[in-house]
Write a structure and sequence with these properties.
125 residues, Rieske Iron-sulfur Protein, 0% helix, 55% strand, binds FE2/S2 (inorganic) cluster
Amino acid sequence: MPATTQRIFVGPSAEVPEGGRLVVDVAGMTVGIFRFQGRLYAYQNRCAHQGGPVCQGKIVPRVTEVIDENGASRGFTFDETRLHIVCPWHGYEYDIQTGTHPGKPTAKLLRVAVEENPSGIYVSV
Ligand code: FES
């Protein structure tokens, strides 16, 4: 018997500000909804490492190494064009736009369908 998908209202658009998140319990699961560069992304709140509550971790820009013209490292800087969520249990990081760990592509978050219209934000689970 095929599972049925439920479309569930989770809140008004203002609940997920730019660079922010909303974590909600819907249909027996916890979902994190993020906004970056105006778009919404949603994932199950379950880290690919050991199941930690990844969506409740810190949100930080990607850290990148600065390499000079001679190939030498000049330290690290934030890349404001990429936003990461950091799992609070052991520090796995995931790109909010892709749900993938940047250094370990096999580690991925489970994406949840999310949409927004003038009445607010909905997830389909
Ligand atoms: S459970 Fe998320 S980093 Fe280990």
